[in-house]
Amino acid sequence: MAVSSKLLLLVMITLIFVPVPSSQCQNHNHTKLELVHRDRVSSSTKFHNHSHRFLARMQRDIKRVAALTHILSPVKSYEVENLGTYLVSGFSLGFSDYLVRVGVGSPPTYQYLAIDTGSDIIWVQCQPYNRCYKQPDPIFNPATSTSYTVVPCGSPICDALLLDDHRCHAGKCGYEVNYADGSYTKGTLMLETLTFRQMRILNMAMGCGHNNQGSFMVIAGLLGLVSRRMSFVNQIPKTGGAFSYYLASYDNISPGWLTFGHSLGGAFPVGLGVGSVRVPIYEDIFRLTGSGYGDVIIDTGSVVTRLPTVAYEALRYAFIAKTSGVRTPSVSIFDTCYHQYSDNFQFPSISFYFSGGPILTLASYGFLIPEDGVETVCFAFAPSASGLSIIGNIQQTGIQISIDEARGYIGFGPNGC
Questions:
Q1: For 84-178, where are the E strands, in sequence order?
Q2: Count of CB atoms within 10 A of residue 254's CB?
Q3: Other C-beta atoms within 10 Å of 164: how many?
Q4: Which of 132, 124, 122 has its CA nearest to residue 108?
Q5: Which of 11, 286, 354, 391 is deepest in the core (most CB within 10 A)?
Q6: 3-state SS assignment for residue 227
Q7: Is 391 helix (H, G, I), strand (E, B) or coil?
Q8: 33 with 196: CB under 8 angstroms?
């Protein structure tokens, strides 16, 4: 029995983790793109209030995690040789909170695109449009670009999307992506030039969205990084499908970055620690079983890290035991919150343990999330509705993360190097 076409894409590139040696820190010979958090560029006044912004992020996160859990739910059986085949472009995974500034076309129209390690296609809103959502930047107009080329039906690029013939319109190759929260983008495939600072990439295959709707807010589109032919990283020559990124915390003035062309080895994550003590969790809870249960994925579009209930409860219990301060009521998905300005508020560190001995200790902003921006902070983990563990972007902040998709490795380096 062949595996579901939606099951294994994230699992395949996120199975293996390794701490990045200092010698593999940021290589200045590689192109580095700045990343900013979506909330920093939002022009919506209703999200200037921290509590409103916080609750909106949690609602988006709940929907995305529900989609991930559904897509990666266990199957009864599958054939190993079929892992990674029959993958369809566009998954119901929502979208990322971290953005990169990109110029589309010639001359370039600059847009904010969300980076997403859970999607494999690049797209932007395009004129003329049947439906569109509001974005702060001008909507890209192919008619004003001298480098615009439509992708015809029957071309190898169109075939790479595995689309049916009825997706073609007037000889143009069509695409459609539907997301978990009801958002969607539909349009035609194009070849265009993308500009990142001084770097220009010619003939990038991407979606030109003429029918778009949803809660995308400030983004003009999406930059998919999953290992597929249509993804951004696989269309850049000489990268080997490898890239690195660094997500700065929200209150960090300096931006994060995205760069391409790293290669590394790997080891499995095998545990969690609170303070200097390892939490007693059965190691195999983080491994993918033959029935499809378990595994760990890393997702830039998910906010909060989810753990299987037994692992979450053990971690939370150990954290509470070493934390002093005034507890506050539960907020949204968080059941462990504190008044951060109470006189005796102290908390331990949180660490990830890896096979072979390396330990990665998170900064406080990697496991405490401010609920109201003033007084209340919450323990930024939550129980998973399944055996799937999801490392969200809160726990990824302040760390260099390197991905070698060809070899299936993901690495962590401290302090963004």
A1: 98-104, 109-116, 122-125, 149-150, 174-178
A2: 10
A3: 8
A4: 124
A5: 391
A6: coil
A7: strand
A8: yes
**CB count in 10 Å sphere of residue 261:** 18
Indicate the residue type of 240: G
**416: exposed, middle or buried (Cβ count in 10 Å: 0-12, 13-18, 19+):** buried
Residue 274 has a CB neighbour count (10 Å cut-off) of 23
Q: How far apart are CA 394 and CA 378, in angstroms?
A: 12
- The pLDDT value recorded for residue 149 is 95
Written as one letter, the residue type at 303 is V
- Is the Cβ–Cβ distance between 412 and 267 less than 8 Å? no
How is residue 96 annotated by DSSP?
A: -
50 three-class SS: helix
The catalytic residues are: 116, 299
Contact between residue 164 and residue 158 where contact means Cβ atoms under 8 Å apart: no
Q: Which residues pair with 240 in a beta bridge?
A: none
Alpha-carbon torsion (26, 14, 227, 220), positive or negative: negative
Q: Which residue has the tokens 């194009």?
A: 190
Q: Which amino acid is at 2?
A: A
Q: What is the pTM of this model?
A: 0.69
| Rounded-to-10 torsion of CA 413, 233, 58, 74 | -90
Maximum average pLDDT range among 45-49, 68-72, 189-193, 264-268: 189-193
**Tokens, residue 95:** 């979208």
Q: Find tokens 């380096």 and name the residue.
A: 413
> Within the chain, how many helices (H) and strands (E) appear?
7, 26
The SS3 assignment for 346 reads strand
Residue 38 DSSP one-character state: H
- More confidently predicted of 182 and 311: 311
Give the closest residue to 224 by CA, choosing from 172, 282, 281, 179: 179
Measured in degrees and rounded to the nearest 5, phi and psi for residue 286 equal -95, 5
